[in-house]
Write a structure and sequence with these properties.
With about 280 residues, the chain is an alpha/beta fold. The protein is built from 9 helices and 7 strands. GO terms for molecular function: hydrolase activity.
């Protein structure tokens, strides 16, 4: 039987220029060392790990809180739009953004926070506690997910225009809620709220898949690879929930941990080396 080789993109030579675009799931807040505090950018995020492994010249403009608009054309704090970093000589670009367009992690955080403070609020009456819990809407309509898919498509197309020879990888989000995640025990959401967060994650992953199909960009499905490493799993690749800040022994909740960053970096380096 003849061997079929499928060519996926240009070979990335050592010393080539690599630009990392994205939000906090790419930046790595809370993972030591933090090399750019305003962005929450870690020197051990997946971009830095990939660059070190492949010998690439990295420009990392990932920024916590970034939306697709911050990548395309909107400054964030004092940082210019992230696409400004992509130049014609760029050989590799990774993109992890779109979750903040949906308020994905923000919704998870607000629900967890409100449920946590609602417990002592029961002392003031269940009506007060229920009002607190009711402040979060976990559902998005189809148009919201399509808007993210369209924006991601635009990000890739603009990247292709700026760097026609670049290999572009859409890297979706590590899974937070998986088969092992237990409501109330692993996260402070109940049996009705938790599946809604998982549905939002599925919609976000589908937006990445649509953008990859529309543009020909490679898809790194970190969401699929991490299903068995979600919150509550024996070896989670993301953090759980805490109300303690890092300086008091806490961590950045609902974000990749060091193991998760290494896992995503391995997915990327394997793809670059084998296709």
């Amino acid at each position: 039987m003849p061997y079929l080789f499928v060519y996926r993109g240009p070979v990335i030579a050592s010393g080539s220029r690599y630009v990392a675009l994205g939000s906090s799931f790419a930046a790595g807040p809370g993972i030591s060392p933090i090399v750019h505090p305003p962005a929450g950018r870690s020197g051990s995020n997946y971009a830095h790990l990939v660059a070190a492994e492949l010998g690439l010249e990295l420009t990392d403009v990932t920024y916590s809180g970034a939306t697709t608009a911050h990548v395309l054309d909107t400054p964030q704090d004092d940082a210019p739009p992230q696409l400004d970093a992509v130049t014609p000589d760029t050989a590799l670009v990774t993109i992890t953004v779109g979750g903040n367009d949906l308020e994905y992690v923000g919704t998870f955080l607000r629900g967890s926070f409100l449920n946590t403070i609602a417990k002592p609020a029961v002392l003031l009456g269940r009506r007060v506690a229920n009002r607190i819990r009711a402040r979060v809407s976990y559902l998005k309509d189809d148009a919201a997910y399509q808007a993210v898919a369209d924006s991601l498509t635009t990000v890739v197309e603009r990247t292709q225009e700026r760097a026609p020879n670049a290999r572009i990888l859409l890297v979706d989000y590590l899974t937070l809620v998986g088969p092992a995640t237990r409501p109330r025990l692993d996260v402070p959401l109940n049996e009705e709220q938790l599946p809604s967060v998982a549905m939002m994650a599925d919609g976000l992953a589908d937006a990445f898949a649509k953008a990859a199909a529309a543009t020909g960009a490679d898809l790194i499905a970190a969401s699929t690879a991490s299903k068995d490493h979600a919150i509550g799993a024996p070896e989670p690749w993301t953090t759980g929930f805490t109300m303690l800040p890092p300086n008091l022994g806490g961590f950045v909740p609902y974000h990749p941990n060091a193991a998760g960053m290494h896992a995503v970096a391995n997915l990327i380096t394997e793809r670059v080396r084998t296709s």
